[in-house]
Write a structure and sequence with these properties.
The protein is α+β, with helices and mostly antiparallel strands and 65 residues long. It is built from one helix and four strands. Strands 1, 2, 3 and 4 form a four-stranded antiparallel β-sheet that branches.
């Protein structure tokens, strides 16, 4: 499975939480990678499961620019 990397802003509902957050995950698709990264952010920042965390930036496959 490919390794995905994210470096960019994080939003909760329509509120900017941070300008730059970085994370990486292994996933079968970009959609699943985005879900995994949002989950990682929630766990690391003590957010509840119902929080709507979105990663509006581009998710890269590790090794690509």
């Amino acid at each position: 499975m490919p390794k995905y990397f994210y470096s960019g802003p994080v939003m909760e509902f329509n509120t900017l939480l941070t300008d730059i957050w970085e994370g990486e995950t292994t996933a079968p698709s970009e959609k699943k990678a985005r879900s995994n990264l949002a989950y990682q952010f929630k766990k690391a920042n003590n957010r509840i499961a119902n929080s709507r965390i979105t990663l509006p930036g581009k998710i890269n496959v590790k090794g690509e620019n």
